Amino acid sequence: MTTTSAALERRNLGLLVAVQSLGGASPPIIISLGGLVGQMLSSTPSAATLPVSLYQLGLALSTLPAAWLMLRAGRRTAYLLGAVMGMLSGLVAAWGISQSDFMLFCLGTTLAGFYGACVQSYRFAAIDAVGDPARHAGAISRVMVGGLIAAVIGPQVVIWTRDTLPMTPFAGSFYSQAALALLALPLLLLLRLPPAPPKAVAHGARDLSEIVRTPQFIVAATAGVVSYGLMAFLMTAAPMAMVGCGHSVGEAALGIQWHVLAMFGPSFFTGRLMDRFGKRRITALGLILIAASGALALMGLALTHFWGALVLLGLGWNFGFIGATALLTEAYRPSERAKVQALNDFLVFGTVAVASFGSGQLLHSVGWDGINLGMLPLVVVVLALLAWQGLRQRQQMTARG
Q1: Reduced to 3 states, what is the DSSP secondary structure of residue 131?
Q2: 391: Cβ–Cβ under 8 A, 6 or more apart, which residues?
Q3: Which segments cross the bilayer (predicted)?
């Protein structure tokens, strides 16, 4: 690698960390307050989580058009549009609160989904930035460190700004969400990423239907879906469950802050762990930690139980989802990356959206304990798939040897 290319790589990764820090702060704001604002504005208790669910749905539906835009106009153009949508979404949500208009607030959180899809794509931009497949896991892990900063920014914005406009509680936090997206714009303008592979190269790409039938894609996508889906499902319900059990809004926001810190804190060394122990083992460790979070949540309703479960859930997501992302890179060739990455994120965030729509109703009907108990079988399924893939690979190596 030349000195110039090394400097450009460091610059791009640094910028991606910075915009991840700013863009990654939006979901904690929406998730911490979406259900509470929903309770305040909606006349139907089961619809309280609809704003958060619509954010997840907007994210899922945006993955494919965002990927198409990245392929046609480049990642930077798509990311700039995403930040503009992030600004608009915060302003619309805040205006909905000020007008006591539940549907307008829901529109604001839905618009934030496109920004969320772009922010989630930053991890794939990190792969493009380094090029060398041997360093993909480290690059993903490094950019995800930006989420650690977002874990401080997002919840603290909630705490500092939720009452800044006394006549419209929580509106100040959504105005702040718009301001964070505005700050990301000049940084995105400085981003310089390699172009997509030329069409001539893409002619050798396999059909998507062929790729999705490979064991590599099946295991990676399933692990990503379950890791992210369970995390988002439980994180959506947790603030309402905490407030319902007598804990304060501030304590719920701090619980989400510790959760998001746990989500991104291990990113400093997740890449090295995967290099040492393997992507599959680290992914499995993540799923085991998610199961442990459910077990702790079932032990009680004290603040320590909620916070401890959220921390374990965050750690499990980090190892499970980053591991699944790294496993996904083994399922496609460079010319296939755009469509496979887009499909993977559509599956992940589509599942998250569906799960999120049911979280409020499930919390209302089966309670916090029922939600945590019900997620354990899904973890077992993914662990079985990872074990099957490991056995299959060992058998193939033995046959070749």
Answers
A1: coil
A2: none
A3: 12-33, 53-71, 78-96, 102-122, 143-162, 174-193, 214-240, 252-270, 282-303, 309-328, 340-359, 371-391
User: In what helix (H) or strand (E) does residue 156 lie, and over which residues does it extend?
Assistant: helix 146-161
Report pTM. Answer: 0.74
How much helix, strand and coil, in percent to the nearest 5, is found in the chain?
85, 0, 15
pLDDT tens for each residue of 276-334: 899 999 999 999 999 999 999 999 999 899 999 999 999 999 999 989 988 998 888 87
C-alpha 128/C-alpha 193 separation (Å) is: 7
Q: Which residues contact 350 (CB under 8 A, 6 or more apart)?
A: 60
What is the rounded distance in angstroms from the CA atom of residue 157 to the CA atom of residue 164? 11
The two three-digit tokens of residue 36, written as one number: 């509470």
Give how far the C-alpha of residue 145 lies from the chain's centroid of Cα atoms, to the nearest Å.
13
The residue among 396, 368, 395, 15 whose CA lies nearest residue 184 is: 15
Supply the DSSP string of 325-343, one letter for each residue. HHHHTTS--GGGHHHHHHH
Structure tokens at 96: 């909905």
Dump the DSSP string for 345-395: HHHHHHHHHHHHHHHHHHHHHTHHHHHHHHTHHHHHHHHHHHHHHHHHHHH
Res. 199 pLDDT band, cuts 50 70 90:
low
Distances 211 to 217, 218, 340, 374 between C-alpha atoms, Å: 7, 9, 8, 31
Residue type (1 letter), 23: G
Tens of pLDDT, residue by residue over 360-377, are 677 777 888 888 888 889
Q: Which domains, ranges and CATH numbers included, belong to the chain?
A: 3-193+208-400 (1.20.1250.20)
pLDDT in tens, 158-195: 888 888 887 888 999 999 999 999 999 999 999 888 76
